[in-house]
Design brief:
Helices cover about 25% and strands about 25% of the residues. By secondary structure, the protein is an alpha/beta fold. The protein has a single domain, classed as Rossmann fold (3-Layer(aba) Sandwich), CATH 3.40.50. Strand 8 and strand 9 form a beta hairpin. The radius of gyration is 18 Å and the shape is globular. Bound molecules: S-adenosyl-L-homocysteine.
């Protein structure tokens, strides 16, 4: 089944095709058509260092507007984090792209995501991996994300209301783990649930500071840590949320 296409309201009447060089010359200009918006979106991702073809193809296919509500959906193609329910945020597209690229997901991979939020990151991962498990502490966000996965026919994602700091022992180990909320340090249970040869990407640092995005690689002899870029994420909180 083909995912339903989302058509944000045009801001002005488009008259004929736009010149091809426009996005390169005026990256900040408000684009007229959805095709042009999408082209600028992909251009901005490349400019920020998202170069992996599979990641770009997945981000072209999955419409970020479907993961946002009301007026925010119109800003889906802008490279900025935006508010979602329960006081949380959908990450900036370039950060989603860079994290997904750093995760280096093989097609047969079983992936764990901690922090479902809107479900956007999980949807991108679902185009690249065999199986996605995504954990979220707010039940309401899980319900909304599940609806989106169903509407898009993304059948390889399982979204669960749970405290993700504990991981998902019944499905462990995972080939890849991605955490989209910031902890001071990588949670021990998540490190333990990574296969040898596996990769985990996560932001670390205090929640009211700029955090560092790191990549943890599990080798035969232990864990290796690489620092990727400064980021800002909502905090990874223990326990289940109220909503
Ligand atoms: N990946 C999301 C962005 C999520 S924002 C997207 O693509 O939209 C981070 C999310 O992590 C929030 O929804 C927050 O509720 C959730 N979170 C924070 N601590 C958590 C925990 N211990 N377990 C599960 N989810 C958690």
């Amino acid at each position: 089944m083909k995912p339903p296409s989302h058509t944000p309201r045009a801001r002005s009447a488009a008259t004929g095709p736009a010149p091809a060089e426009r996005p390169a010359e005026h990256p900040e200009r408000r684009p007229d058509s959805e095709a042009e918006r999408k082209m600028q979106f992909l251009f901005a991702l490349r400019k920020r260092g998202v170069t992996d073809r599979r990641v770009l193809a997945a981000m072209e296919e999955i419409d970020r507007g479907l993961f946002l509500r009301g007026l925010f959906a119109e800003r889906a193609y802008e490279d900025m984090p935006l508010p979602i329910a329960c006081g949380q945020t959908i990450s900036q597209p370039s950060v989603v792209g860079l994290m997904t690229q750093a995760l280096d997901v093989p097609p047969r991979a079983k992936v764990l995501e901690v922090g479902t939020g809107s479900g956007y990151q999980a949807a991108i991962l679902s185009r690249l991996a065999r199986r996605i498990y995504t954990l979220e502490r707010h039940k309401r966000l899980v319900t909304e994300a599940r609806r989106r996965f169903e509407a898009l026919d993304l059948t390889n994602i399982t979204a669960i209301t749970a405290d993700g700091t504990r991981g998902l022992p019944e499905q462990a180990p995972f080939d890849r783990i991605i955490v989209t909320a910031a902890a001071e340090d990588p949670p021990g249970p998540l490190l333990a649930q990574l296969v040898i040869g596996g990769i985990m990407v996560l932001p670390v640092g205090q929640s009211d500071h700029v955090q560092r995005l790191i990549r943890v690689t599990r080798g035969e002899g232990g864990f290796e840590y690489d620092e990727l870029l400064p980021v800002r994420f909502v905090p990874l909180l223990e326990g289940i949320g109220q909503e």
